[in-house]
Amino acid sequence: MTNSIKEIGDAEVLFVIGSNTTEAHPVISYFMKRAVKKGGTLIVNDPRKIDLTRWAQMHVQHRVGSDVAYLNALIHEIFANGWENREFLANHTENPEAIREWVKPYTPEMAEGICGVPAATIRQVAKILGTAKSVSVCYTLGITEHICGTDNVKTIANLQMVLGNLGKYGAGVNPLRGQNNVQGACDMGALPNVYHNYQAVDNPATIKKYEEAWGVTGLSGKVGYKMPTMLRKAHDGGTRILYCVGDNTVQTEPHMAHTIKEIQALEFFIVCDIFPNITTPYADVIFPDTCWGEEDGTYSNTERRVQRVRAALQAPGEARSHWWVLQELGKRLGYDMGFTTAESVWEDMRKTATSYAGITYERIEQLGLQWPCPTLTHPGTGFLHKDGNFTRGKGLFHKIEYIPPAEQADGQYPFILSTGRRLWHYHTGTQTRNSEGLSDLFPEELLELSPVDAARLGIKTGDWVAASSRRGRIELRAWVTERSPAGVCWCAFHFHEACANVLTNDAFDSVTETAEYKVCAIRVEKLADGELNTAAGSMKRQARP
Amino acid sequence: MQITIDGKRCEASPGQTVLAVARAHGFYVPTLCYHAKTGKAGKCRACVAEIAGMRGLQTTCTVEVKDGMVVRLDSEKVRKAQRLVVDLLLSSGRHDCLSCEKNGECELQAAAYYLGVKKPSFAVANDEAAKFDDTSRFVVRDDAKCIKCGRCVAGCKNTVCNDVLDFGFRSGRTKVICDHDQPMGASTCVQCGECVQLCPVGALVDKKAVGQGRVWDLAKVNTTCPYCGVGCQVTMHVDRPRNRIVKVTGRECAPNEGMLCVKGRYGYDFPSHPERLKYPMIKRDGVHVRVSWDEALDYTADRIRTIVGQHGPDVFSAFGSGRITNENNYALAKFTRAVIHTNNIDHCART
User: Do the chains contact at B271 and A192, CB–CB below 8 Å?
Assistant: First the structure.
């Protein structure tokens, strides 16, 4: 996030797109609802009628995967009415005239044909955004998990730069990160192109710097593979060893049958985790890791705040912190990384990281600090790009054109399936399904489909259905709900017994290699009559009509 | 500016309430309806004081300071009024401290203790009509203990904005209801537990924690929630002898201001699940066999050395994780780069 969570509660206008916030980031949704109660305007942009729409002044139901057309039309309208922030464009962006030209074809009428949102509605939204003093855009994986995910994000950046909504309180481009430490995993250099602190791996100066800091020679200057490439290369011997920490790969990657084949093609597969899951059976070696509550360390949250986690429990059996395992393996392979405690690992990282140089365990004993925090007296940074000053100097607009999703509904597979998370569960369920009570509330995956489609197929809530795509088939019960627009089905990936990723499409964004989890074509057939048990039935509270 | 409380000069700043200044200077002031997060309420009248120039007793949680204000907290008039408030509340419900989950951190119990109210002086009201509602999976409601302070209602409405709880019915029959007086389990409550966190007494408690340990026997350890990217600050309440987390509460600080969701507040017992992976294992003839750490590490190092030796470092790939700590991710990145000499490291940010 360029800005902080608490700013959401004070926002004048909140533009939420591709984020089922009440379920995936409940606490941030509280701040959004507070902003509404304070008189702020909430615009929810989502193909589904998610619960947050109950608090929204406007719900824009654009078609799945049509974000670029819709957002470009908003930018078009903003320019057409002179609502752009001229001062910001002139002083803080490089190519404002170019963006004005690029969006010209995206009239509201043209966009309506793609995204299904009436042109009048697009004009109404543009007016709210264009005439507000500040707008905060919040998005989640509904934006990124498309073959055009990078384009979607760049279009949001374009919109916010046109409006001058960067570098100030209550504004910004705010991706709500999905996992407890996905921000930290990026910050720590668990990426193929950068070291921790985002230093490019193919920069000779960077290599020299880390060779000196770590006392090694021969660091690779070649950008590494991204996850899908790593897996794909298992087939031709390009990847022979996969060392997998805390990642239930079989359940989380798209096109499960294909993922299994890739993993089976590996020569040596190491899995480090806290529970047996549907990936562990394929492992050649399993290392038992300590989990939350059992080890010291830090997580970095979505607003870049580095916060402590602490050990309160004895780990079971011989489970160990993973840094210890790596330290031991390193010694056996001829290099002592020098790790003795979690704090020693942090200190080793900190000495070569300007953004975190000011963050020590001592300073975050009570309260976390937001990076950049370059010195020991720096208070941390609430929002980035203050006064419109970007890291690269001036903001650069990108020309983004709409491209349709990789797979479209057709005669054989007439429905679009989209995926995501449920309030009651997290990820592959290893934590939530192993904690008492949450599964009582939501014990099994359900296929959400619209009343219109359900009536046509003779399906009612609780009936058993089969959902199939070109890649696989799952059987689960149906939840007939107004949340789904006609033609769109939805289910999550929390339950391995009926996992969305059996069906999802392994088509990837060309830049990030993020899969198009949010769109694939499926067929739905009724298998048998059935009824939901009461606990699951009561979960309709997440979709009050 | 300065005000005087019981003869003591106290520094104050404009906008502060008398209560805030008194507490900052170490005075005991009982409060039941006031909570920093839900703000001024002025309902329970436990926090009253005499303020020179103002008629009658004033609720310190609502009155803002003025320069030179003279406040009396220790007068008999004040104490008598406070005792009566607490006495009436104790008399109006079934406040059985013995087995109450809140014993030791109950704010009504604390007020009775500090004010010296030993026993309710009035006949305990007939509480047969008061309902005990344990229909919710994670929250137990006991109307017989409810003091109608309204914190839960204010929290549900204005803090987490879930708009489920409200006051229903009139005068003596007033009670807190869910939606249109549904049992909590059948209501639209999403079980975020904010009401439990705000309840000053034992009227709302965490069901999973009932009977799991007295407040003084549990260690409190602060940490960050393991679920989504919000990074809510929580306190784990730990039964050390049994090696179990028995409760989680939100910390009243950034970024979550004490608020949590159902997963963060109630999904805390997975570490103690019996099916955890406990020992290193190597697959032999298709079966995972338990081995020692040394054997597992030696075997893994050998295999890596052999395969990388034969095919070069780029046949090694590592998956870090958005769920493990910064330290573990950094260690894996350093291992991949400095030990194996490849940049083939990535994680589930793409999923």
Answer: no
